[in-house]
Amino acid sequence: MTENTPTPDPVTSAAGSLRETPSAEKSRGAAVENSDAPRYPTSTDNAPAGESCPPQTSDTPSGNIPSAPLDSASTAGAKHEATDRTNPAPQTNGADHAAGTDCADIPIRDLAPRTGRFPSPIDLLAMLGIMIGSQVAVSVVARLFLSLLGKPATDGRMNAMLYFFSMLLCLGLLLYYRHTRGGKARWTYFSLKRLNPLLLAWSFGLIFSVGIVIEPVLEFLPRPVVQIDKGWWAFTAMVVFAPLFEESIYRGFLLESIRSRYGLLAAWLLSSAFFGLIHIQPYTVLYAMISGLILGFIYIVTRSLWASILLHAANNATCYLFTELDYGGMTFREMILSDTLYGLCYIAAALLLIVSAYQIYKVLKKMKEEEKLAAKA
């Protein structure tokens, strides 16, 4: 990823050319010098491009901050100058910028969890019930209706339509339940300008590597009984319907709902756990759960549901391609005939997974600290 040079803060740069008069400095005393109040942007002011948002707080003990705002141009300049001496703005590197961890276009109020009753632990269980129940209900009712009409219920078009209506019902019920329970946080974010092709390529390779690394563990679990269909309707269900609905529900609605009350890490972990559990079969639960962690991370750092939708679609399209090539249901070990080649691929996948896990930990740790600072603002 390319190194990005931080853009200087125009307010801070202007402050360097302004100096307080001796009388103004004397009247303010040590209050400004000792102030450790973090300089957060307001909901209408964006942080400068290239800087991390919000800035770090200083270690200087806080003084008595005047309650009345300072409207003098000279005192405002001195305030920024004094704050910059004790509280320098952190610099971001190219990796952080490429990952989208700078939050220049995100209001501070959206970084901090809010207090409220939704979602409670009971709400989380109720939402899990809605996710499973809506799919079961639509499938059972539709198949009973088709059996009465004497029509088959196993063709690709029927399966795609059943999936579409079950997921549409699920999303609608979840949004209605959230409304009745008083959930007021924004339920998802869409942004094209924060998409990063390198980040998407890395995350796609990471998901593929996860499948290789956990494959020996999956060998001890029963294979899934559901096989992937072929044809246009199967492709539409896998590559269009599934990414749109599942990302809207798990990385959008669920992650943002949990984050609004419990914070970043809880939302990341719980939304991934729900995504794994909804796949029901043990063979697919573990893989879906780990993939959910990667998809959730991509959504968090890009603040765009389009990123996770594209990644999900690319992964499902690869699975469908393997099915068309008659590799469906085969493990990576079964597709690679050479033991030496398989061993090299496994080592490479494991190294990528370890290094990536450490990088994800660092980014989320930094974002968690920013979340704590935003909560104090």
Q: If you had to describe this structure to a student in words, what would you say it looks like?
A:
The chain has 377 residues and is mainly alpha-helical. The chain has 14 helices and no strands. It has helices spanning 10-16, 22-28, 73-86, 94-99, 121-149, 156-180, 197-213, 215-218, 232-262, 264-277, 282-302, 305-324, 332-335, 339-376. Helix 9 (232-262) runs antiparallel to helix 10 and helix 9 packs across helix 11. The longest helix has 38 residues, at 339-376. The protein is globular. 28% of the residues are buried. The model is unreliable at 1-104 (pLDDT under 50).
Proportion of β residues?
A: under 5%
Order of helices and strands: HHHHHHHHHHHHHH
**Cα-atom radius of gyration:** 25 Å
Strand tally is 0
Structural class: mainly alpha
Unreliable stretches? 1-104
Largest sheet: none
With helices defined by DSSP (H or I, 4 residues minimum), what is the helix count? Answer: 14
Q: Provide the residue-averaged pLDDT.
A: 75
End-to-end separation = 32 Å
Morphology call: globular
Helical fraction equals: 55-70%
TL;DR?
The protein is mainly α and 377 residues long. The chain is 63% helix and 0% strand. Helix 1 packs across helix 3, helix 5 (121-149) packs antiparallel against helix 6 and helix 7 (197-213) packs across helix 12.
